[in-house]
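Fold this: Putative beta-barrel assembly-enhancing protease
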Amino acid sequence: MKRHYLAALLCCCSALYSATSAYAATDLPELGTAALNTLSIEQENVLGDAYMRILRQQLPIITDPVMSEYLTDVGNRLVAHSDNVKTPFEFFLINNNEINAFAFFGGHVGVHTALFLFAGNEGELASVLAHEVAHVTQRHLARSIEAQQKNTPATVAGVLGSILLAMAAPEAGIAALQSTLALGQQAQINYTRMNEQEADRIGMKTLVAAGYDPYAFPSFFGTLAAQTRFAAKPPAILLTHPLPESRITDSRNRAARYPRRPVEDSLMFRLAKARVQVRYSNYSNEYAIDVFSRQLKEVDQRFKAASEYGLALTYFKMGQLDKAQTLIRQLIKLDPYNLFYLDTFADVMLETKQFDTAIKQLEQARKNRPDNAVIEINLANAHLKKGDWETARKLLERQRSLDPENSTVYSLLTTVYGRLKMSAKKHIAQAELLALRANYSNGIDELQRAYRQTDDNPLQLARIDARIKQMRVAQQQLNQLK
């Protein structure tokens, strides 16, 4: 069993971090998605869930509800127009200034924040996501395992750590793997080249079906190539997705087969980009103000709001609340249901102690979108700040039932339960937060504390006991990956 999981993880890493040799100039035939003997979809989902929990522990994954919702919306638009979708998808954002994106088992697609800074429009961002979605739907990782069934890993120790390192710093990760493993390198390189070409071809088909411009693919590749030409070190994405000239040419040729239909850029993309620039980049406050101020004069007036939003975020970050409030009030008046505006409006109102104003605006938006996580989490936080802990509890427990893996919800619940003196439930929420990061040992400790603090509630005692057993099994399965 250990060797089975190890093989899966090895191929996950080698597929994501392929060599930089040139691609063949011609398109490859359809490789298909025939049933594999190596891994079932269920097994892929188990591996994907375990690996995602490890990544939450090891990498700076962003839990920003607004950015998560935007990225998921773009990703799901592509998934809805993809073939061979056999698993749910999860799109997540990593705070990393290296341009990169990757996919692994169970429909997990990770995107570095730098991609938002680098992409010129939503189509270019979507082209990268479409490529990664194709890796998943074509089961490239599982097919890589099948292609290398005869290869025997040299060692077990260090493999998991090398994979995690490769996610965060590809060059270091590749070096660690090369020193740890004995693989048939040329065969693996050839196979992953084929995977990359297939992901490009199928990804472009998906991109067009979702309503994006097919030329977003070659446009992104061209910009990437231009950046690389003058870079002392290639971007991380080129270590995982090599970009020889033939790949750029192939993407242009494929795009030419579709009708040219330039698609208007998205204001939502511009807002997301502004949010990344202020909150998740190396921009100084002064530089950000200069950038957004210049954009107000130079950028298409349709996207003026994104520059004003960037300024509002920057002023809020600097503590200049009057300026931030003036801008965000203007924006939310124009579009009261915009999640970017709502989130920042709530932040400003809470910081200035205008709790009822924030609650009123969020309640109005909630009537329009009753299940939305961004709105309900902000609303719960507003009630929490106001001191209405019971209302906050109900909102957060509702969101927990809708999304049992939302770490922001569990984090807020621990605070709310603490305020309400609900010690057992506080420990349960802390346990689930730890489990999301694969910290099952400490999670079990929290559950045992909850068990000791639960009186005269046989149903809750039974639930805690069952969850302890589940976490112990999960811990044993995780140990098999090491």
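The chain has two domains: 2-256, 268-352. Residues 1-36, 152-191 have pLDDT under 50 and may be disordered.
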